[in-house]
User: Fold these one by one.
Assistant:
Number 1:
Amino acid sequence: MDRTKIDAPLVAALDDVKDPEERGLLVFVHASGSPPADDLRFLEELGVAAQAATKPIFTATLSANGLGQLTDRPWVRYVRLSSKLRLVGRSP
């Protein structure tokens, strides 16, 4: 896992992971370009739609192990944890 590509909140979330195979990390992936065809298959195995992966920024729900494999790809620039959204005007 290339931790230089991961933001601080995601590093903290990784510390709380109990099962490294469970997909529970909702992230934004910032890419430097479209991944090669082999990596599109890899992304589909991680649960990312191939069409979404051709965008410069896309979302994914990953396991800790999947995140580690993803950050090792040269076309991945940065991965950051998505925050939970709430409706405006409603209390948390």
Number 2:
Amino acid sequence: MIAGLNPPIDGLEDFSMESRAIATPWSRIVRGLGLGQYPIGYDQHAEKCIRHSIDQLCFRVDNVDSYSRFASAIIDLILQKTNPALNLSTNKTDSLVSTVVGEIHNISNPYFRVTAGCILLTSIAKLNISRAYVSGSSLDLPAEILTSMDEIKPDRIQDENQGRHGDYERISAWATVFFAFGLLGLNERLVTTERDYIAEALSSLERVPSPFFRGRGGSMLISSIVLLGHKNRLLDHGHDHIGSILSYLDRAPELNSKPSFPSHMSDHFIKAYPLLTMLNAIGIAELPMYLTLGRDRLREANDLIVAIKPVERTHMGLYYIIALYNLGCIDTALPDKNYFIERLVNEWKNIDPGRDYFLYGISYSYLLQLAYSTGRCDLITDAMIDRMVTAFASLERTDMSRANRPYPFSYVLNVLADLGVADRLYRPHPFYCGRSPFSWVMEHMSPKGEAERPRLYMINHALINWALRMRSPRVKSARKSTYCIDTKCTQA
């Protein structure tokens, strides 16, 4: 293991229930789910890096990006709360929370407003702050979040899959809401005499036309509902929601609604991704009968993992391992687990992370998390990390790759912070003529970050995640939440 490496866990057995359900960087960086996993305690040097990073980002965008302002405010709340030298008064805590709420109100996009609100609720829960600060006589943020959910309309995502999403964004937002409300013990808000939000969320599944997005989004929704304690709702009114999604995945060839990606992805990858996420949800729900519904799902998953291209496998390997672990069959389904992991992680030697910002650009981040999640940090080398942090300059070659540089950068920041070696982004590097990789990336943003604006939220999520990890791992919340946050959970 390289010097200074400090993995957050020693293997799959250390996963909390939250980590089992929200295991991959995609959930944290793209969706803002499960931020603050693996608490490590306060670190003064890390605080300086985090504050410097968010200040630089806000400076580069001239404070015109409302989501970055929100991120700055909540990071300030988190860092002041986790600093043991500070003993925040009630008035100071109220002031900090009010500042965050004010920035949430300034976010015009309802999806991102919901996400920001849920990140605050998650932070309140994990920092053991009284929920009265966000749900009292003068402010009811949970109610505001539910109201904002009604503003999220179908097919509003502006990307290469315009028209294929349907209610995918609403489903993703519902999963975020359910996870956050569960952590804060607000389950009673979700099923009332006036509205049944769980039923509304489940009905949204039928309004996602693409099998890929229905499977990927549906899997997180199912996991969130299970952890809320409403597993019985998956067979609500005689409708089998898991079975329906699996059957819809099987119809993908006839529906001919393939998603587009920033990089060319094989048909095998397009089939594997939603299937593996659904297998993970089935594991979380402890419903193994679905593994043989319609076909042998484990065999199908294994065949797809073998068939996809090696660089695609760098993304899917982590999903595959986590799903098998949650299903309780990793030793039987993958008896050569160590060989599989070794061969996959060592694939970095054949991959150029600067080739593009997506398929190749985030591949190393997935490999690093696969290594530490399975207790194989011995596979991580200095050369691997150095190649990853020097890849950002290669993205100068096209306007599109430059505009999307925050995508791989956020993934790299996230995983290096997880491993305790985020300083590799903040110290001078000869490849960048003595500038640090972080400084170089910031200095090469477009004026006011206009070109990068759609991706900046990903850097914000990585920084919030890092900050929230600095709460004490020894302090457990006195609040009753739906599921365990920081403690290991024994598989059933």
Number 3:
Amino acid sequence: MPVKKKKGKVKKAKAKSKAGSKARPYKTLSKKHSVLTIYTNSFVKVFKNPVVMMPIVFTLTVVIIIMAIVALTSLKFFLSAGVSAISPETFDAKTIAALIANKQFVKWLLTTIGIATLALIFTYSYFYSSLIGLSISSIKQKKVTFKQGIKQLWKYANKYWYKYLAIKIVIAIATIAYLIALIAITETIKSTILSISLLLAGIIIMFLLLVFLLLSPQALIFDETGIVQALTKSCKTVKKNYLSFLGLALLWIISFLVAIFVAALSGPFASLINLAIHFVLVPAQLISFVMFYAERK
């Protein structure tokens, strides 16, 4: 009888631990991997969980639809303006000057650009926030099924897209403010060589500082936290692991540059390499950042 009581206690303890793990699904991973291991494992995760590519599919689909709408409205506008055939010869200097002087054209152009830009920003924020969410699922589960992935995609997108967008706006404002200040300083220097040198040094320093904020989207969704807390946690995590995270970021920059360079030289295969960049490199990069944050936060 005493043995049975102990077994019951063990079962209850196991049940409690399982319930606790469901209540708090995202904990710091105890094992730390090297940067190269994280880099290579991120590709493995993509191919084991191809559902992480679905946000990219939706993003590109919406982008194509937006571009098609812009093209059709442009064609309609030019046909109504009396332009029978659209070609490079159609838009000579006189035609362009006449279009710029046309208030209706300027209004249409600004409206189209504004609506298309807002639509693209919303699309990017909506689906890329879900991509980070699916990246988190991919490192917590051995296999994310298509059904699970689609359900989680909408869940993460609806919950985090506006916070994800807010973080990106904060980073963009900080970058623009820094560049404006840097250009203003370089303008005061008369020496061209010194001015260019200072500008290049300033851009390098800017990148080294921006690294502190790169894990903010991962912290936002991984810890289910707020915007300010996500920015703070990103800075703290990078501060503790600066050189290793800088190495990971540089590894991905090199990977993207090499892929783009190869695509430019591939001729008829350029489209396939561009698809690989979108459907493999982008998800793998986000997964690697999630893995890094989960292990070292």
Number 4:
Amino acid sequence: MKISKKVIPLAISCALFFTAAEASFPGISKDMYIRGFILGGENVPVYLDSKLKVQGTAKPYKEYDSVLYPTTEVRIYEVRDNWAYIGYNSFWSGKREGYIPLSALTSKNFSKDGRRSSKRIDDVYKRPGERYPNSAVYAGDTVYTLAKSGEYVQIVYPAAEVYKLAWVKEKDCAWATEGEEHKAGNTVNISLKIKPLAYESLFKMSPGEELPDISQKDMELLIALAMKYSYHENVTITPQLIKSKGLMRVAELFPEGLQNLNFEYLSYNSPIRNSILNRIIISLAQNKPVVIGAKKGNVQSYALIVGYAGKSGGKFNAEDFRIYAPRDQKEARLSEWLAGFSEVTRIVY
């Protein structure tokens, strides 16, 4: 990952609240919500409306099943001065939505400003002292700080396609100085050198052991995954390797077929979003090409994202990403490829 100016990160306390010059906290909704847990060990009642007077769930209405347990992860859809509109899964009756006091989630109103972390933080907690499994703050993530409790600081940070409300230890936080690395105009240039692979060429690699014919979309997924695997493992793709890794069955068994490859898979079904582009940049910076799937109607297609040259922060542009499109057997801009589709469906990091 190349940055136009050399930056020496400076550790700054997480407990600081950032100035308006920093990134503004994005609006949250059912498409871009915050995952997290309530603060304490006591159950929290869920209310029918934002007045927080009538207990019950708003969608669907259930008075008897309107209690949040400390072990229940919530989806925060909206936040106001003293309440939050949330969704959660009830063991007894499935998905529920309703209102809870904001104080059940944080002692502060949600910060409007954030700063980018200068390092990865692996120790992330649901609440002080209780680990949050499969959670990490990555270097480059925009982090929004809320409350402080002893050695812990409460934060909101991007986690794949959504955000997480969590806690980290103040000593683990570090930020770049005034954004030298992230000032408008500074750029990141990432280019992964990956040898293109055409499905037809596999027939020439090993006569007599050709791969069978498959559908167009399955072929595109196979090629994108094979190129990604080849780059990760520094191996040459052959029909034997494809068969041994189960790549021929990935499309049929997607995403379960990915377990032999140790890749991270996420489902989206939405237009491309800034948080998705940010996560792709992080993956590329970690030397990991990204498989992206998109569709329009019944037409599904796949490509491999292999590079990015653009701003290091703020709003990202799809035209700054470089892909290899198996369908056309050529490189192109991500924006050009996405123009033919209405939504992103799958991404393999």
